[in-house]
Design brief:
With 204 residues, this protein is α+β, with helices and mostly antiparallel strands. The chain has 3 helices and 14 strands. It has a 4-stranded antiparallel beta sheet with strand order 1-2-3-4, sandwiched between helices. Strands 8-9-10-11 form a 4-stranded antiparallel beta sheet, with helices on both faces. The protein has a 3-stranded antiparallel beta sheet with strand order 5-6-7, covered by helices on one side. A hairpin with a 3-residue loop joins β2 and β3. InterPro entries: DUF7115. This is DUF7115 domain-containing protein.
């Protein structure tokens, strides 16, 4: 799908790594360094493009029945808010978070972000090289933990009545956290597939 002229002009020479429809002709485009939100002509507004740098210190998400807001915090430079349909919030969050991880040096060049999981107080980001975990009321800030697959010596899953524990054994420590059972299968399959791909094996 070709970009609207105004959005293409704003993107410039950068590549668009992800696009998400926001309803109608509105859309969100993610480049390696920025997120751009295109709003088409409406009854009360002209066509516009808003740009948001990926040099972000914190992301918070608040969702209502119809609308969701992503608040991007830039420290002393203040906050910016992106409003999206509530049903699109996870589709939007994934590429934005991937861009932020890359721009802030958490992920390496060539490392891909496979999937993002967002639970009430836990955010998991599965990449091709590592698992990134953040605990707290916000989706993301600088208080995250990362677990490179290169340091992984074992991976196990312990099913419970409400949640499944994910147990990572690393060179010098072990890490355990819980995922709700309704999402546990997706977490397990995504993480196992990523680790297998990293080591070039068919199964663990």
């Amino acid at each position: 799908m070709s970009l609207p002229d105004l959005l293409a002009e704003s993107v410039g020479d950068e590549s668009v790594v992800a696009e998400v429809s926001l309803g109608g002709d509105d859309r969100l485009a993610v480049t390696p360094t920025r997120t751009l939100v295109y709003r088409s002509d409406g009854l009360l507004s002209d066509e516009s493009v808003a740009e948001y740098s990926h040099d972000v210190e914190r992301i918070a998400v608040s969702a209502g029945r119809r609308k969701a807001k992503l608040t991007l915090s830039y420290g002393l430079d203040g906050d910016e808010t992106i409003s999206v349909p509530a049903k699109r919030v996870d589709d939007v969050l994934h590429p934005i978070l991937a861009g932020i991880l890359s721009a802030t040096g958490v992920t390496d060049p060539g490392e891909s972000v496979v999937r993002t999981f967002r639970f009430s107080e836990l955010t998991l980001v599965v990449t091709s090289d590592r698992l990134v975990k953040h605990i707290g009321s916000v989706v993301w800030d600088e208080e995250f933990e990362e677990f490179p697959y290169a340091d992984l010596t074992d991976l196990d899953f312990e099913e419970g009545t409400v949640a499944t524990a994910v147990v990572l054994a690393l060179d010098s420590r072990s890490e355990r956290f819980k995922a709700p059972n309704e999402s546990a299968r997706a977490v397990r399959e995504t993480l196992v597939d990523a680790v297998c791909s990293f080591y070039g094996v068919d199964s663990l």
